[in-house]
Amino acid sequence: MTVPHEEQRDHPVVEDGRMAMRPSHMLVSLMVVFPFLTAFDPIRSRSAQVEEGNARMKAGKADEALAAYDKALAELPTDPAVHFDRGTALAALSRFDEAAEEFLRATEAREVPLKASAFHNLGNSFFKKDKFKESIEAYKRALALNPGDEGAKWNLEIALKKKREDDKKKEKDKDKDKDKKDDKDKKDKDQKKDNDKQDDKDEQDKKKQDNKDKQDDHKQNQNEDKPDEKPAAQKEMESVLDSLEKSPKDLEKQRAMLRAVRRAPPTRDW
Fold it and tell me: Which of 5, 23, 199, 266 is a plausible cystine mate for 27, CB 3.0–4.6 Å?
């Protein structure tokens, strides 16, 4: 697995009574998924607090080193070198967002080696937070200041590759989201059609029921208004019975006629 390199910046030393830069030319390999495992080589300084922080960093006590650098920063708030050292401690503690801020302040340095190293480590901090676009720009600035920085070249290639992979993943996720949205829109549209059909059916059923209710009401009203009528045959029978009950003689005549009919000989047909 390819991994980025940390920048071991040049050390300022005193030679013949004046400040000079001594390159370290040391690159430390780190796994991408882990924080900085070794401290950046901090800048030596005449500040007692900076020297205390440097000693703590070399002892692997980044939290104590950070406390010392905080005190140094109170004394030298605009010193890019102190910001650089504080950034190394924050990076060792995996506080990469804060480390990036400190390395960004360190890029204000006038000394080209310190400025280049600050951009290199700024790129590393962005890389650790998966901010590949920002890390690429930082590595490019570092290489513009120090073309011979092999670590920055290596890290730049890794950052470019990771950005391409990240862009593809984002595009793929975007397509998936679009497909999901299209599917949802289609389902919503189909559901709306079904709802509309059901609403139409319900409306038609309601109209049919209303018409039926109206017809039933109309029939009931007609039946209520119209007097009850008996069949004609029943009326005639009741009339005969009524007349017979009123005139017993007529009833007796009817019975005699029926008896005479029964006694009469059959009619000859020859």
Answer: 5
